[in-house]
Request: fold
Amino acid sequence: VVSAGASSLVADGTSQTSIRATVSGVNGSVVPDGTPVSFKTTSGTFVATAAGVIPAVTLDINGVATTNTVNGIATVTLTSPLRVGTGTITATSGGVSSSTTVDFTSGSVSNIVLSAEPNNLTANGTSTSMIRAFVTDANGNAAPNGETINFAVTTGSGKLSSLTGTTINGYASVTYTSAGVAGTETITATYINPTTNTVTVT
Reply:
């Protein structure tokens, strides 16, 4: 049986959790100490132990970790990748395998890329542009659904359909309606931490 100390980790390349395999023999008996167990994962990486640590965890060229049981349990450490997703971790001993999963999630919002489509409008008070904020963490992973982004026209007199937008697949958007006079207007998108960016419409 394989279990993870945490069901999810931030995909930052440093967050870690323990992966434990409980290995049983015939009729559920505890296997002898020193029984080898190998671990492989579809995402993330395992950590090799320092010299002299017992039981040792070693890695082969493919990143597969191998260690030995103590009281029927073998444990390794899994480090998250930089990209969101789900890792399937499989432990194998004596030809018998078992698996568990760990979800890798985006970290704190740290960047907003703001665009206006189109960014040139007729100054008639009715022309519109879609203002889209792509919101990511420090590693470029899209922000989780449901994050609130604040929008404002910081220069000019155009109007926004809403002062807030909620992320879906990393994107939050509002509609800008042009002012009745010609000129360049600035729209700003801000997150609460605060991360911010601007785009202009002329």
Q: What stands out?
A: The mean pLDDT is 95. The chain is about 0% helix and 50% strand.
